[in-house]
Amino acid sequence: MNKSSFIISISGPSGSGKSTLVNELKKKLVEAVSFHFDDYALSNTYPEDFSTWLKEGADPKQVLNPDFLKDLSNLANGGTIVLPHNKQELKPVKYIIVEEPFGRGREGIGELIDFAVCIDIPLEIALARRILRTLEGIQRSGSKADEPLKQMEEYLSQYLIVVRDLYHAINTRVKSDCDLIVNGINSPELLAELIIVELKKRSLYV
Hints:
Elements: E1 6-11, H1 18-29, E2 32-36, H2 50-55, H3 66-76, E3 81-82, E4 89-90, E5 95-99, H4 109-112, E6 115-120, H5 123-141, H6 146-176, E7 180-183, H7 188-201
Parallel strand pairs: 1-5, 1-6, 2-5, 6-7
Antiparallel strand pairs: 3-4
Helix pairs in contact: 1-7, 5-6
């Protein structure tokens, strides 16, 4: 595929620091834009039953988001796109850094990725970070805590039943087909530097 941009994907479970690392790497690469999975959350389609999905192997191809794929493909091939959540216009540059939890696992996305990074982190640390993020969001907004706390309660209930095992299964898949595994305990600044060092080693960075 003759793309105009080099695509780096960042994967990891919720709370692993994907978005933070994407943005840190974008700053260090300079000629880069970030492209986030969560910006397309409203058009994501997941399997109806997570337990069945997990038992059948948690195939990432069952997570569909044609708008995400279409926009990433257009951007990678020199087109200008408009993000759906904030109407920000993105123009093609040298590097596109993609927050993609499934790495190369999803059909169409995998073929676009040039360098796949997986954040490896103990799941209890990722969970603690997510809880803290929710609490910090409540404090910053000054709004009533009822709704976000209810959402967190529902998330934790599902986490104990199936979500933790799903994260483990998905990250195991990603690690089996990525170019670099980084330790999510380390700072985003250090992880970004490690990625750049690896790109230089492989003559993928100019």
